[in-house]
Design goal:
With about 180 residues, this protein is mainly beta. It has two helices and nine strands; from the N terminus they run E-E-E-E-E-H-E-E-H-E-E.
């Protein structure tokens, strides 16, 4: 972490390849914020969630929503709400206070009322707990969603995050 004179924090993450390990599902960082910080505004690919292998229908622009609206109530809860090509991503409370993520190169980001553990352990949306936090994620990229057919096709190789040494740099600041 490096703190700038303007109060921004530069985060530099690195990963050294570990022999024998599989692909990474994601390479990023999650911030846990109070649930009141649920207003989202970002400049990136939207108006709906998109992934490395599912971004052709997304358009570049400035979008806004709420963390609860980013959750997709699939029959079985799962990863959702990701946005690719993000230039900046803000999460604020009703008074406009919050956190802004930004970087020198586009990254991926999301803000949801549930963490990965809660999503993975719920069998149905009604099994999810009452929201107590907003989980803000900044990512160098996560694996695609796969499923090119209805028989559970895996993610195509070109859309997986390989077990390779990598680096991710982004910044955040209070607003």
């Amino acid at each position: 972490y490096s703190v700038g004179a303007d109060g921004s924090v530069r985060v530099e993450m690195s990963y050294d390849k570990v022999e024998g390990m599989p692909e990474l599902p994601d390479f990023g960082m999650v911030f846990t914020l109070p649930v009141e910080y649920d207003g989202i505004e970002y400049y990136g690919l939207g108006g709906c969630d998109n992934y490395w292998d599912r971004q052709q229908g997304a358009r570049l622009g400035i979008f806004s929503s709420r963390a609860a609206e980013e959750f997709v109530p699939y029959l079985r809860p799962q990863e959702c709400g990701n946005h690719c090509g993000v230039r900046w991503f803000r999460v604020t409370d009703r008074r406009g206070r919050g956190l802004e993520l930004f970087g020198d190169v586009p990254f991926e980001a999301s803000a949801l009322p549930y963490n990965a553990h809660e999503l993975e352990n719920a069998r149905h949306p009604y099994d999810l707990p009452q929201a107590h936090h907003t989980y803000l994620r900044a990512s160098a990229g996560q694996s695609g969603v796969g499923g090119d057919d209805t028989w559970g096709a895996p993610v195509l190789d070109e859309y997986t995050v390989k077990n390779e040494s990598r680096r991710f740099v982004f910044c955040f600041r209070g607003i």
